[in-house]
Design brief:
heterodimer, A: about 300 residues, mainly beta, six-stranded antiparallel sheet, about 5% helix, B: about 120 residues, Immunoglobulin-like, 2 domains, four-stranded antiparallel sheet, three-stranded antiparallel sheet
Chain lengths: ~300, ~120
């Protein structure tokens, strides 16, 4: 091929001798040409994904920058954040560019941390710490259980969009669904369960819950406690970093259907997860005309 | 130095008054020029590289597709890019190669990486 084309050098360089990187333009090289640019926010209520249609009919090259909500500091995707699990990441197919948050991104976590005094259990035979049972077992009767979570990082009065307790079940007896009621412990910084928590004040907010008969040993039981958590953080002397407790009381007699979660076994990983922001990440994107070719 | 050069404005802007962002080209401002593009296949391995022949440490962009699901994900730096459920991918360059380095778990997957290597240094 004949050696012809166009070169433009940077100021200060002779175009005839400039190296490729000293050229501003050389018709020998492709450049990234922009198809479209824009910005937006990935939200939980929006399905945790933003979809940007590009109408190119092929998979385009792209660049996405992300910022945690309202921080205005943008990083090249993907991002995560200290204290948060998961990521927000960007990908494209032949129809769209997507910016997506993984299911666990945007949730905060507080743990029982395998501490014996973060678990409580009470039935007709007395009070015990170190585990909770729910349901009804033999002559012990209906069970009450309690969990305490360390260092809940919610500011006083902040809106709790969603809060769940996540328990790992160590043992299961029977397969009858276990109904129960749940309350928060209506205290600013509930003390550990070295002494029984079952006489402590309960939140006005309460909820009927149940443990499905299909949840067996080693499996996860997750349930919502949003209104109870909200009531506790709305307390006048609540402070971020305080401990938060919950009481669960079995009801309706379900003989020989029981779950067990222990502080020193699988259940040591029980945790409270909470979500405070609907906005997960702000994004800015550039879609180039270049194609991702493969194969 | 004499004030000369080339400016090309975008459609709708007067080249004599257009700002840099309103210009499609300005010889005072360098731009990334593409040296090479290509696809690297990582099957049963967790490392690959591309020799670029530039004798400088080039800038790059790349995207990867795990298990050929058709979703091409952006890779961002020389730190491992980890997306939940996928192997971590670390991409970095020196004056000879662009390196694609995955965690050992990548050996359990098939991966393809599309890359753009620029003529221009990444720094």
């Amino acid at each position: 091929m004949t050696d012809y084309g166009i070169k433009v050098s940077q100021p200060g360089y002779d175009v005839k001798t400039a190296t490729p990187s000293q050229l501003v333009f050389s018709s020998k090289y492709q450049t990234l040409k922009i198809h479209s640019q824009g910005s937006g926010t990935v939200t939980h209520s929006g399905g945790r994904i933003a979809t940007i249609n590009h109408n190119l009919g092929y998979i385009p090259q792209f660049l996405v920058h992300l910022s945690l909500p309202s921080q205005a500091t943008y990083y090249i995707a993907p991002i995560n954040s200290p204290g948060l699990k998961g990521e927000v990441f960007a990908y494209a197919d032949a129809s769209n560019l997507y910016v997506e948050a993984t299911d666990d991104f945007g949730w905060y976590y507080s743990y029982t941390a395998g501490e014996q005094n973060n678990y409580g259990r009470e039935d007709g035979s007395g009070y015990y710490n170190g585990r909770f049972w729910l349901g009804e077992y033999s002559t012990y009767g209906e069970q009450k259980g309690a969990l305490r979570f360390n260092s809940v990082a919610i500011s006083r009065g902040a809106t709790v969009l969603e809060a769940n307790i996540v328990c790992t079940i160590n043992g299961r007896l029977g397969s009858t669904t276990i109904p129960l009621d749940v309350w928060g412990i209506d205290e600013d910084n509930t003390s550990d369960f070295g002494s029984s928590p079952f006489g402590r004040s309960k939140t006005t907010a309460t909820k009927s819950e149940s443990v499905s008969g299909s949840i067996g040993a080693g499996e996860i039981w997750e349930f919502g406690i949003t209104t109870m958590a909200q009531e506790i953080v709305n307390r006048g002397s609540w402070n971020s970093g305080n401990h938060m407790g919950f009481i669960m009381e079995s009801k309706n007699n379900t003989p020989n259907s029981l779950i067990d979660s222990d502080y020193d076994d699988l259940g040591s990983s029980n945790y409270l997860k909470y979500r405070l922001n609907n906005n997960l990440a702000d994004y800015k994107y550039t879609i180039f005309l270049g194609e991702i070719k493969y194969g | 130095m004499t004030d000369y050069g080339i400016k090309v404005s975008q459609d709708g802007y007067d080249v004599k008054t257009a700002t840099v962002l309103q210009q499609a080209f300005n010889s005072e401002k360098n731009s990334f020029k593409i040296s090479a593009t290509g696809t690297l296949f990582l099957t049963g391995v967790n490392y690959g590289n591309v020799e670029h022949g530039l004798l400088v440490t080039p800038g790059w962009f790349c995207w990867f597709d795990v298990d050929y699901d058709g979703d091409w994900r952006q890779v961002y730096s020389n730190l491992p890019t980890y997306i939940q459920g996928t192997p971590a991918l670390s991409v970095y360059s020196d004056d000879t190669y662009v390196h694609f380095d995955c965690g050992l778990e990548a050996k359990e997957h098939i991966m393809r990486v599309f890359y753009i290597i620029f003529v221009d240094p990444g720094d």
